[in-house]
Amino acid sequence: MQAVSDGPKLEIQMLHDRVLVRLSPEEGERRSSGGIVIPATAQVARRLSWGDVLGIGNSVRNVNVGDRVLFNPEDQLEVEIRGEGHLVMRERDIHAVATERTEHGTGLYL
To answer: InterPro entries recorded for this chain (predicted)?
Structure first.
């Protein structure tokens, strides 16, 4: 029996309105705007996360590969690709997009 990694490389194509996202690395401890250090172990309310879009389905309209997106990681499906964790979500589960293309932005930047 041949191992999967020994076979040909298969490109992953997302379907319909699905988006493949790689979580941004955890920042560990953070600082508040007032300079207070918040340790990585501090419990906070449900927190949204930023991630980088690696692939999109053909029905995705407002997100492109390379964009950074804001979403709730607890509501998403996780998949491991080559030993690295990724998330698969529907476009409608994305709360915001950070991109160089601006049409209806907030005036805030990452």
So the answer is: Chaperonin_GroES, Chaperonin_GroES_sf, GroES-like_sf
